[in-house]
Write a structure and sequence with these properties.
Elements lengths: L6 E3 L4 H11 L3 E4 L5 H6 L7 E4 L9 E4 L2 E5 L4 H5 L2 H6 L1 H6 L6 H4 L4 H7 L5 H8 L3 E6 L2 E6 H4 E3 L2 E2 L6 E8 L5 E7 L9 E10 L2 E10 L6 E2 L1 H7 L7 H10 L13 H19 L2
Parallel strand pairs: 1-3, 2-3
Antiparallel strand pairs: 4-5, 5-10, 6-7, 6-10, 8-9, 11-12, 12-13, 13-14
Helix pairs in contact: 10-11
The protein binds flavin-adenine dinucleotide.
C-alpha cells in the first residue's frame, strides 16, 4: 500500500517545528528517522495530515557530558550512539543494548527519540531508561518539562507526550559503579524481543543494595519488575535462592500473549532473560 496524502514541512528552527505541531492539533506528526513511521503510513496505521521533519534541527542531535548525567539529543541515531566513547564509558547498559536493536541499515537512520516516542513494548531502550532512572525531556510552545521514564511509558504505543510536544533529549545518570546486565530473547538477531531484561544493580561487598529490573517485550509496555527487585534487595551474591525468588516474583506481571508467544511462554522467557542478564553482569 501507499501512504495517504500528507503535507510536509522541514523547519530550520525549533520554534517553527513547535508551531507546526501546535497548529496541527494532533494531525501533525514529527518525522525522525522514518524507520517506523514510514511503514506505518504506508500501511495506513498512521495518517498524519502533516509531517514535521526534524532533520534540519541541529540542536536535537548529539551526545553531551553534563556532569552527573549524559544528555542524548532525540535525533541521535543508533549508529552514532554505538560509535560513542562517552556512551560506552558512562552508559554501558545502553551500549550493551544497542547492537540488539534492528539491523545496521535501520540503525543508520533510526533515532533514539523516535524509539522512545513510539514506545513499542518490545523495544530495548524504554527498558534501559527504566533500569537507569532516565528522564525524557519534552518541549512545546508552553515550555520544557522533564518526565521520569517511569511516568512516561503508559501503555501499548502510549506515552505521556502530548501531540504538540517534541522529545528533545533523553537524560541518563552516569553508571557510577553500578553493575549492569542485559539479555534479550528473540527468534532471530535484530528481531523485536519476545522477552528481555535490563538490570542496574548496586552492590556493596557481596551484598545487593538495590536492583532495578526492567522487562521488555512481555506486556503492553516496558515495565519494572518490582517484586523481583524486592526479592534481590539485600541478597548475597551467589545466593541462587534469591534469584529463584526473583524469577518466581515475575508471576505478579500481567504477561501478554499474541501470535509470537503465549503469555505463559513469555513469563518463562522473562525468567530466562532475567537469569542470563544477572549472570552476565551482576553475579
Ligand atoms: C525491520 C525493523 C526492525 C526493527 N527492530 C527493532 C528492534 O529490535 N528494537 C527497536 O527498538 N526498534 C526496532 N525497530 C524500530 C527502529 O529502531 C526505529 O528506528 C525506531 O523505532 C523509530 O525511530 P525513527 O527515528 O525511525 O522514528 P520515526 O519512524 O521517524 O518516528 C516514530 C514515531 O515517533 C515520533 N517521533 C519521532 N521523533 C520524535 C520526537 N523527537 N519527538 C516526538 N515524537 C517523535 C513520530 O512522530 C512517530 O510517531 C525496527 C524497525 C524495523 C523497520
Amino acid at each position: 500500500m501507499k501512504a495517504a496524502e500528507f503535507g510536509y514541512l522541514r523547519p530550520g528552527r525549533m520554534e517553527e517545528a513547535l508551531q507546526a505541531l501546535a497548529a496541527g492539533e494532533g494531525a501533525a506528526m514529527p518525522l525522525a528517522g522514518g524507520q517506523s513511521l514510514m511503514p506505518m503510513m504506508n500501511f495506513r496505521v498512521a495518517m498524519p495530515e502533516t509531517l514535521v521533519d526534524l532533520a534540519a534541527l541541529a540542536e536535537l542531535r548529539g551526545i553531551h557530558d553534563a556532569g552527573e548525567r549524559v544528555v542524548i539529543g532525540a535525533m541521535t541515531r543508533w549508529s552514532e550512539l554505538m560509535a560513542s566513547g562517552l556512551i560506552a564509558a558512562e552508559v554501558p547498559l545502553l551500549a550493551r543494548a544497542l547492537p540488539e536493536i534492528a539491523h545496521p541499515a535501520i540503525r543508520n537512520r533510526g533515532t533514539i527519540g523516535g524509539s522512545v516516542a513510539l514506545a513499542d513494548p518490545a523495544a530495548e531502550v524504554p527498558a534501559v531508561l527504566l533500569a537507569l532512572a532516565g528522564v525524557v525531556v519534552l518541549r512545546s510552545l508552553a515550555g520544557e518539562r522533564r518526565v521520569a521514564a517511569g511516568d512516561f511509558f503508559l501503555g501499548h504505543y502510549e506515552t505521556a507526550r502530548a501531540a504538540d510536544e517534541l522529545i528533545v533529549a533523553l537524560e541518563v545518570p552516569k553508571a557510577r559503579g553500578l553493575r549492569h546486565g542485559f539479555h534479550e530473547i528473540g527468534r532471530r538477531h535484530g528481531d523485536f524481543a519476545l522477552a528481555g531484561a535490563a538490570l542496574a544493580v548496586a552492590v556493596e561487598g557481596a551484598r545487593v543494595m538495590e536492583a532495578r529490573i526492567a522487562l521488555f517485550g512481555v506486556a503492553d509496555r516496558a515495565l519494572r519488575a518490582t517484586g523481583a527487585e524486592a526479592a534481590l534487595r539485600g541478597a548475597v551474591l551467589g545466593d541462587g535462592t534469591a534469584l529463584d525468588r526473583a524469577v518466581a516474583a515475575l508471576a505478579e506481571i500481567d504477561f501478554a500473549g499474541d501470535i509470537h508467544a503465549s503469555a505463559p511462554m513469555r513469563r518463562h522467557l522473562a525468567g530466562v532473560a532475567l537469569r542470563r542478564a544477572w549472570a552476565e553482569g551482576v553475579a
